[in-house]
Amino acid sequence: HVLEKSPDVKRVALMFTDNSYGHAGRGYCAAGCAPFEAQGKIEVVYNDVFDPNTTDYFPLLGAVLKTNPDAIFFSDLPPGKQAILLEAAQSLSYKGIWMCHSWDLPQIAQRVNLADLEDRVYCGFGVDASEATFSPKAHNMYKAYVEKFGEGEWIGFAGLTYSAMATLDQAFAQSPTIEPKDVMETLYAIESMDHPIYGKSAWSGKDIFAVDHHLLTPTPKYVIKNGVFALSGVTDDFEWWNEYKNDALPVLKNYKMTET
What we know:
Elements: H1 2-5, E1 11-17, H2 20-38, E2 43-50, H3 58-65, E3 71-75, H4 79-91, E4 97-99, H5 105-108, E5 121-123, H6 136-149, H7 156-166, H8 169-174, H9 180-189, E6 192-195, E7 199-204, H10 206-209, E8 214-216, E9 218-225, E10 228-236, H11 237-254
Parallel strand pairs: 1-2, 1-3, 3-4, 4-5
Antiparallel strand pairs: 5-9, 6-7, 7-8, 9-10
């Protein structure tokens, strides 16, 4: 999606926390880049892990920026450390694109002027319920959350968790009982799910997990505009995988991210 929006991006840096979450992200991001490397559209100029406990990001970013990236993907830090990372990058005059699965703007805004990040900071591994247009249902949850807890307490994972639980809606409606086994079997038997947040979705995963229990949905992508996340576009993950898996799957296997 970012390449569609910013075709001038050629040099990509990947940086991940040195823990199980970060190592999984490293494998999947490398796989996501592989088709476009094969096409000669991008070059991955940096791909490494860093200590998740660090609070001084200048040495880390110094090493990354020596590779002259046009875009940086990183994963993953809590909201406060996201803000410190972006603040350090601003101090080092990095003007390129940032990508992460999720950013927490209320916390970032305490350290960085969001106007300086306009059209540069992307996210989108699931719905961000703070944005109103992609899913009114999710946004209604956001409004109820903010009314109860305050805008400063919102984090993107809340919307993601809500959308994950909504996956069960159709299964509960069709299951003969509410017994967990019946609901689970009903869920996996739904060949074409009309997800209440994402819309038409399909089961996949056999190539990676040896069973089609991975629901691939149309996934919204967001970018900062006017100090908030605006919908930038939607990527159909099922179509993406079927188009690019021949390049991506060998990379996942190389990173030991498969069970097949």
